[in-house]
Model the fold of this input.
Amino acid sequence: MSENEKKLSGAESLRKTRTYGKFRCHNPSCMGRMQPAAGQKTIKCPACNMEFRMAWVKPDFPRIRGPVWNVNREIAEKVRADKGAVPPTSKKEKK
Ligand SMILES: [Zn+2]
Done:
């Protein structure tokens, strides 16, 4: 009997240590996990380096408001350049 009680309290303590303030990267091809520090205004995904703006609903409850567009555009352009894609301006040379 006391054994069952121990198991119950163990489950309850697990619920208490539940981490909030973690979220998945909003980049659909990444889905990396991010954990912000309290009061942080932007967060960078450690996996794809995209940056997101954050809002704090409560002091311990952050939410992603949206991506930081200029940072993410730079990353996307860099990725494209690394892949050796032809820049759109070169099409003008075609007769
Ligand atoms: Zn990511």
